[in-house]
Design a protein that fits this description.
single chain; 207 residues; 2 domains; mainly alpha
């Protein structure tokens, strides 16, 4: 299956899980355009695809799999390197778009709240938010070559930031994730990612 066909299948599955058999494909296309923006290096179609593949694998552990899937579709929809409210803008877009597409207000708000959990400023208590956050952070536990690619992609996104500013800030961010015990809140993601994530993070921090 090529990449576009895979995205189409993920989109249909997410909306089917929401009880909507005719998904708003123009919205899918708008999202794909966003993830293909030229200033992105990590928060791209590659990252989106990895997240959507992960929710398919972890689907049985989601309380509301359609909401988690749509949360992942929208979680980096707005990505402005100069802004500090990307998650809020993405969450608002998701809530409003879902309401327009016929999703009820409660479910639309839950998707909004799932996206806000990707600010990573606190570990979520809601089960689906835990799963979505674990999927978003799965890259930390990727095989070494993919993790190295990820680190290079993040640096490329922030190429405008001088090394003497970027490097200590980056180490601080990664150290905060390493300090979480456990890093992953859901059993499946912990089993597949926790050990490698700690190896990757220690290597990146220089610990």
């Amino acid at each position: 299956m090529n990449a576009r066909a895979a995205f189409d299948a993920h989109w249909r599955a997410a909306w089917s899980a929401m009880g909507i058999d005719t998904p708003p494909n123009a919205l899918r296309d708008a999202l794909l355009v966003r993830y293909a923006e030229p200033h992105r290096r990590y928060h791209t179609l590659q990252h989106l695809g990895e997240c959507l593949d992960a929710i398919e694998r972890e689907r049985a552990h989601a309380q509301r799999p359609g909401e988690v899937a749509l949360g992942l579709w929208f979680h980096d929809a707005i990505y402005d390197l100069q802004a500090h409210d990307n998650e809020a803008q993405s969450a608002d877009w998701a809530r409003d778009a879902l309401r327009t597409a016929g999703v009820d207000a409660d479910a639309s708000q839950r998707v909004h709240d799932l996206i806000m959990a990707t600010k990573h400023d606190a570990q979520p208590t809601d089960a689906d938010a835990r799963l979505l956050v674990d999927i978003d952070l799965a890259i930390l536990g990727a095989p070494p070559e993919r993790f190295a690619e990820y680190e290079a992609q993040i640096r490329a996104e922030y190429a405008h930031v001088p090394p003497d500013v970027f490097e200590p800030r980056r180490r601080l961010i990664l150290a905060r994730f390493l300090a979480r015990d456990p890093l992953y809140q859901t059993p499946g993601m912990r089993a597949c990612c926790e050990t490698q994530a700690r190896i990757n993070l220690r290597g990146a921090i220089g610990d």
